[in-house]
Design brief:
Blueprint lengths: L1 H27 L4 E9 L2 E3 L2 E3 L3 E8 L3 E15 L3 E21 L2 E20 L8 E23 L2 E16 L3 E16 L2
Antiparallel strand pairs: 1-4, 1-10, 2-3, 4-5, 5-6, 6-7, 7-8, 8-9, 9-10
């Protein structure tokens, strides 16, 4: 298992280096405009479990040919019933790098990839009705998402856009006593505000 974890981190490190090299290329070009965006992903179901997908905020840095999108995403879910209380927390840190092209005056298409680091935490408190015993458990994990993405962005006005993106992502999670990996597609809907 340790070899698999090391291999996954080596691949993630390589992907980070590639994104950093692309980011340096963005820095070498003149920034045409920048802005903020908010992405709302659809819930992903893999097998019998739902994968938590946070709402993400993006910082948009756009040059003539490339777009860099650092992101942060947060999700907190609380479930409670008569016998159980459960809390999940997910933090996502990542970036996307895209080539882009206007297909019309107010319609932009882009394609590229995303790399995201995920930190997970889960707390469970079980209190069976017919027992005085309270069972508490906590677990945490780390993982990553990597894969290609493409989307379109519509500008009803010059500084505001809305659109959609489809992603084909490979997810690998390292939990305390388990590993989980999946390949899935994920739609993302977003709004973006540009300041320049």
């Amino acid at each position: 298992m340790l070899v698999g974890v090391m291999r996954a981190y080596a691949l993630m490190g390589l992907a980070v280096l590639i994104l950093m090299a692309c980011a340096l290329d963005v820095r070498a070009q003149t920034v045409r405009r920048w802005g903020l965006g908010m992405g709302i992903p659809a819930m992903v179901v893999s097998g019998e479990s739902e994968l938590p997908m946070p709402i993400s905020c993006y910082l948009l840095i756009e040059t003539e040919k490339l777009r860099l999108e650092p992101e942060i995403g947060l999700l907190r879910e609380d479930f409670s019933s008569v016998e159980r209380e459960e809390t999940r927390f997910v933090l996502q840190l990542g970036s996307g790098i895209f080539a882009q092209r206007y297909v019309a005056d107010n319609l932009l298409s882009y394609w590229g990839g995303r790399l995201v680091l995920m930190l997970l935490f889960q707390s469970i408190r079980d209190e069976p009705i017919y027992s005085d015993v309270i069972i508490r458990s906590e677990s945490s994990g780390i993982g990553f998402l990597v894969g290609p993405a493409t989307g379109m962005e519509y500008f009803p006005v010059r500084r505001f856009s809305m659109g959609g993106e489809i992603q084909l992502l490979y997810m690998h999670l390292f939990l305390e006593n388990d590993r989980f990996s999946a390949l899935y597609s994920r739609p993302l809907f977003f709004v973006r505000w540009y300041f320049r």
